[in-house]
From TrEMBL:
Name of this protein: Uncharacterized protein
Gene3D superfamilies: 2.60.120.1000, 2.60.120.200, Galactose-binding domain-like, Laminin
Domain F5/8 type C: 4-144
InterPro entries on file: ConA-like_dom_sf, EGF, FA58C, Fibrinogen-like_C, Fibrinogen_a/b/g_C_dom, Galactose-bd-like_sf, Laminin_G, Neurexin-related_CASP
GO cellular component, one term: membrane
CDD domains given in the database record: EGF_CA (cd00054), FA58C (cd00057), LamG (cd00110)
SUPFAM superfamilies membership: Concanavalin A-like lectins/glucanases (SSF49899), EGF/Laminin (SSF57196), Fibrinogen C-terminal domain-like (SSF56496), Galactose-binding domain-like (SSF49785)
Disulfide cysteine pairs (residue numbers): C837-C864
Protein topology in the membrane: Single-pass type I membrane protein
Domain EGF-like: from-to ranges: 451-488, 865-903
Principal subcellular localisation of the protein: membrane
Record domain Fibrinogen C-terminal: where: 487-540
Family, as annotated: Belongs to the neurexin family.
Amino acid sequence: TGECVDPLVSGLYASSFLASSRYNFLYSANFAKLYGSSGWSPSPRDRQPWLQVDLGRKYRLLAIATQGTFNSYDWVTKYTLLYGDRPDSWTPYIMKGGNSVSVTDLEMNVFHYAFTAKHIRLLPLAWNTENGGKIGVRLELFGCSYVVYMYPGKSSRTLQDHIAINFKTLEQDGLLLHSEGIQGDLFTLELRRGRLYLHISLGSSVVHKVDGRITLTTGSLLDNLHWHYVTIKRYGRQVNFTVDSQTVTGICNGEFTHLDLNTQLYVGGVIEQNLPHLPTTPNFRGCLENVFINGINIIDKAQREESDIRIPQKVWHSVDNIIVSYDHHQRHRMFVKFKFRSWDYTGLLMFTRFADDLGALELGLSEGQINVTIFQPGKKKLQFGAGGLNDGYWHTVDLAARDNLLTLTIDEEEGSPLKITNPFTIRTGDRYFFGGEYSTQRAFQSTYMRFVYRCTPNPCEHEGRCIQSWDDFICLCENTGYKGEVCHMSVYKESCEAYRLSGKYWSGNYTIDPDLSGPLKPFEVYCKMKSYKAWTVIMHDRAVGTKVTGSSIDRPYIGDVNYWNASWDEVTALANTSMYCEQWIDYSCYKSRLLNTPNGRPFGYWIGRNNVSYYYWGGTFREVQKCGCSINQTCIDPKFQCNCDADYRQWYSDKGYLDFRDHLPVRRVVVGDTNRTGSEAQFTVGPLRCHGDRNIWNTISFTKPTYITFPTFRPGSSADISFHFKTYRDHCVFLENSDDHLRNFIRIELNTTHNLVLIFMVGDGILNATLNSPVPLNDNEWHFVQAEINVKLARIKVDYQPWAVRRFPGQTFVTMKFTHPLLVGAANRTLRPFLGCLRGLRMNGVPLDLQGKVNEEQGIRRNCTGQCLNATIPCRNSGQCIEGYASYTCDCNNTAFDGFYCHKDIGAYFEIGSWLRYNIRKKPVSDEAAWANWIDPHYDNFSLGYNDTADDIEFSFSTVYTPAVLLYISSFVQDYIAVILQTDGSVDLMYKLGFITHNYQLTHRNLADGYPHYINITRHNRTIKTQVHPIVEKIILVEDERFDSPKSMFLGRVMEVGDIDYDIQKHNSPGFIGCISGVRYNIYTPLKALFRPNETDPPVTTQGYVSESNCGAFPPVLGYVPWEVDPWFTGIGECMWSIMHYFKGGHYFMFVHLFVYLCLHILYVYVYQQKGSYSTNEPKNLESPGSSRPLTETLRREKKNLPEIEEEFRKG
């Protein structure tokens, strides 16, 4: 007949298509043919769209192909398929894999098992929404009709057979097919306990005493009222037996190859009971269809009542109605019997109303047990319960009732029926409702609907117990050490170090799980907590000395070390994940040698990880056959490397710590020299002690767009991923794994500054779980990410924020079968690269060695070392380095400087009489705030300007005029700070805190010499440190330590309102004349606020002529500026560099280029020095690269030449 791949939809008429709605006439259901010029689309208001196809008659269906609407963005990415023989009875088809289609590509889905149907209904569940897309479907079904052959002759002798049958039933046992032959041939197909059994014999040999009968079995739980498709193919002795795509094969016994049967073939049972090979199985009760025996359609012959078919009794079709009418009502007795099975804890089984308004009777499930409730007017409700019956198995219920007596028998256990003897009256009604009608209870769900075993196989991991309801399952994870939807995530931390980092600072017994969600079980250890580390201690049975005698090198004593509470694999996992491990080992000897000589065969040794023998002892280095005394040169005999190798008749010992982690823990100790007269030995092994977690701090930095690869991630049906990151980028991919065609993939990415996304396609279309963080995640701080996918949900979280959860519908299949390597740091083809630091990456509990992939040339560095720690030119003048990993910038906002590296002085030249005032606060501090700050010094910080116990002042100046007040800070009270240039050029510091004015001389040298001088004053409480050039001094205040409520800062001249100290007044006139730069008081920078304002109305007031100047600062020689942040980068230099590689002698060209550059630089410096410190015609419009936002345009100032300084007069 050929292959069963005929197209079945393309030849149908328009009347064969039906839909719930249509978008318009051009998108009607009849346009839903494959490769058609349009397609079907439902109305946008249709909440439950469907497309239905009537094939005209039953076909065997093998595959479906789908497309989107022609020439549009309309296609379906996920759908459900229903099939049936009638348009009012549907069965869903369940198959693993996604059903995604595009507008042009043809998506073919081959069914896992073939089925027969006349009607097909497609339910769209998800569709393309990009570019205005909507639901759009074109489809084709592939299958074939049955070819009927006339059976030749009245008997059957065949070399090959092809038998097919469809059936569904509620019964666990039933005879489907049976036929025998007079020569002992046999063919029987029967259902026993929900499984199918095929018995076949081609005949037995009497001579050789060979039984030709074989039995094949397959399938399970076939009594679920689903249609099941069975095929049996035989050629000679070879038999293939298939049920719903599950095939078993067998070879018939004996030497015969033909099946010889008589004229009787029994379908569904037998008529005669005297057949010699008749099984004891009862006749089949259920539905049969499409029964084909070598091409003969048995059902078709039975329906036409042909002469060669005998039907002894009426065969009924299946009825699924749940309302039963009963003509003989108003009786005093009631008898009801039925079978059911369910997973639900609660639901209605049966309900009936009594006649004459005498009440009602209800039979239902409550918490898994049968409940009988009798309602009668004027009487208290009677309610009784028995049994735990929501286990998914078939149960029989017999109910017999009469006045004042009700008996309920479950599963025909006559010895323990439930009896109700309370007073009540029975008058049977005429209707009985099964499954949920006439009740407020939840409708009962049972085999009348699709019955699915969700706990077989067990989806719960780590020995979790699975229980199910009708449409879901729950994993009970108690006492497993795991949690989550499928008991996948560990309850415990991976190490004592992880407990310490989570805030557990007290020593004691803790349960750890080194591989987290991996297969190893959690175990208990002792954690010895320190402030800086946590020691993990595991005890064993060799901590007490073990005495050894009578062992030789050929028959040594082998002492196994059995660790408490943990298996060998679990202890090894702990050592493997720790930063450092050590284990004490002690060998005491009396005329018993240990290692003998460095080159000889050792008498004793220890066995560690991977069952490898190690011939070095405690206290020495690995891979050297020595003991600790040879390293310390304390062995009792210098000719030997161990004390015990001297072989003295005295007790000696060799002991020390084994501390090479990759060899630990100690698994066995071997002793082989105690068989001589008087020889004896004793060994002791200390507990395994480890600290640190090298996975937590396994850190790398991505400084260039690249990625690293690991072996393909093979998670199975559950996956969890965790890692720490920090970055400045607002969009990047952390990791990705996929298959060849991106039909299965998983990816974690930062989509925006606040959105962390888990994107995946694992059998159900492209889905995602998105976490919206209330704080930005690209703040260059460490963030901890956790993600999980299982059959019930996908979820992701960061730090301590709640999980973002994407739940899956029931019946979800998760297929995470990836083929490409795991990519970390970018998506495929280096798309959306990650720049930043990554550490502690785990996939399903398995740590990945990130540092093993370090490659400096590709931009992958060990540890979190970006450009800030490797900067060619660091940020100057306390500028904060902002990490860019591929580059860096300097934040100069809290400094008094400017420029790319915060290296440019911001200064001002003050003419005679000019001054600057910077307002720190506009109004004094309230008494309440001052009192609160007095009680709690941390009530607020100095940014509010009051009750400060710390000052940090720095500036530089140059002048030739004295006296002057260089800097003055006033307050709303009598406190002030002043730096005064005396008449002789010396500098004094005046502090008034409280009632006493403190006057200190910072330097006695004459600083009014026209050169720049740097001054720094730092106070903490009563301690003041001063620096004038390289000289540092310390001053102690004797009274108050608080500078109360600062008000204003003055440069050039003090113009404060109110009383001013006399010492300030006598130095205040005519004012400061010269240049002052780099002025900063705590976080306040008045000159920067004037010339680089970050706000439209800076709190700065000037009087007279105050002009910006660099105060003669020598321009620093700076290095290379990264091209990523160079605003003048054009790429020409990179081109020139590439061109040089193509010219012979390119190094000569480079040398000439460098020489010319140096000459021009020297000439520039010379001209600049000759120009003088203040001969500059600035003003200019400036913007600060270090500002957090674009700066406003500098106020335009009058264009006039600055006055000549003293050096220029001398030159004249």
